[in-house]
Task: structure prediction
Amino acid sequence: MANPVLIEVTRGPLVESWHRGAIAVASASGTMALQLGDVAQPIYPRSSIKALQALPMIETGAADRFGYGAQEIALACASHTGTESHTRLAAAMLERIGLKEQALGCGAHMPLGGAASKALHESHREPTQLHNNCSGKHAGMLATAVHLGEPTDGYWEVDHPVQQRVLNVLVDMSGVALGPEVLGFDGCSVPNWSMPLSALARLFARFVTGEGLAPDRWVTVQRILAACWEHPELIAGRGCADTVVMGELPGQVFMKTGAEGVYCGGFAELGLGFALKIDDGAKRAAAGATMALVEKVYPAAIGLMNRSSLKTWRGVEVGTIRSSTQLEDALGGLKS
Result:
């Protein structure tokens, strides 16, 4: 059975496009507070799990050895927009471990931020791996390898100890067995294991509450959460939903986007985690559905993001991006 429509896009009097998907909201014990669509279907979480991938950097002692504070930890969790502040910090992380940009294995792409991309183009420079939105994550992974005396070449390969530690974190915190049958690779070349949305929602409930975590791990997770809430501008960039919401609701909402229409996060005060996937991978639909959920749980978030307006290139509003009746009805019955 097909997943329900979560987001509709109107133009004039008609609905022009529909985005189907699934969403799960769960407690740390796995009790479902909301499930809409097929939440048992495994999906690749992509960049939504960067905060989990950053755990070994702290747990191994690498962050403390190299003097990584809240800013560096936040960048290790980021899908940044490639501004000068982002790239400069990523370069500084590498310098502290004695490496240069060439050691990164993430590949180069133009900055995700429009202003940063324009500035780079106008300077007649080519993008480097520092502009990759994952450069902070990769710098953190390299720091772990250097700290433990492991090879830095191929640190992105699935059998490298750096990635095996990440795998162990994901298995431990999700309670899901993750093997080669669910293994894929992210755009930045590191492994990405698929799991059901219901398991991801439970994982993020544990992440924001510490429920079921070993005391030492909870201390580490709290350090990561604090860094993301202290420096939300490093997690994404100006005007991005992750940055805006976490900047306005620190200590309450953690949220992280992933490619192909994925969003995950948690509501710390309510003890709930969430995970959603848009079938067609549309970013606008993932952001729209996530903001609808956040606004339902925290009305103070209403108006933080203009998620409903469809405009021409001249700035004239000609349509809307709106939640479907099915999504609104499901959110109305959310058990918190």
Observations:
- Residues 159 and 191 are 10 Å apart (CA to CA).
